[in-house]
Amino acid sequence: MSYAYVPDEENGLGSALFDKSGPSIEFAEQEVRLGFVRKVFGLLTVQLAITAGVTALFIGSPAVKSYVYSNQWTFWTAFGASLGLVLLLSCWEQARRQHPLNLIFLFSFTACEAVLVGTISSMYNTDIVLIAATLTVGITLCLSLYALQTKRDFTAAGGILFSLLFALIGAGILSIFFRNRVMDIVVSGVGAALFGCYIVFDVQLMVGSGSYSISPDEYVLAAINIYLDIVNLFLYLLRLVQEIQGNN
């Protein structure tokens, strides 16, 4: 999910992150573009490795699982810290750009997210987690390759994706109060599809192949965007696989 926003040309908003004049001028040299992409994918790989390792620990260790169930404050502390850090990184430019402060915040956020993903995954059967993880890897790779080679411009659809995200959040809240298996399947399927679209959107923002591109100075923001897309895709697939299999 992209925490960046689509620029408003009339009011001049968003110019710090995006340019709308074809590929960004900052990406004119291929070397700059490739260096930025390598840096983002490098950070993303470390983030996903940390998340996978923590999740494996949570679902594979009965002691850790028991501790988490008995001490729910760990989940809520990680949730609050994760939300606070992502808001800080979204609003405070220095926190995103100044090295090594940006990496400290980035991996602190990643650690909190890893605890959240691990805690949620521990509530599911291991086979469901493995199926969802395999699907996530396959879908992410396919969509990333598609985003890199397609001539279609998904970066211009940021407003539509953002509106759909709010609709999804509303449907998710309703599904909490009106439990229905069919509704859960629909919400999970739509959620997975939406974050799949966000992967294409954020990858194109990163490589600068669309109408909008993200500044090469924002490599931390780019990594967070794609990381959250993948995490949310996994969580929706986790729920979808469980509902399809009919497990509680």
Automatic annotation (TrEMBL):
It comes from the Eukaryota. The chain crosses the membrane at residues 40-61, 73-91, 128-148, 160-179, 185-207, 219-238. Keywords: Membrane, Transmembrane, Transmembrane helix. Its main location: membrane. It is found in: Membrane. The keyword Transmembrane helix applies. InterPro entries: Bax_inhibitor_1-related (IPR006214). It is a multi-pass membrane protein. The keyword Membrane applies. Belongs to the BI1 family. This is Uncharacterized protein. It comes from Tetradesmus obliquus (Green alga). The lineage of its organism: Eukaryota, Viridiplantae, Chlorophyta, core chlorophytes, Chlorophyceae.
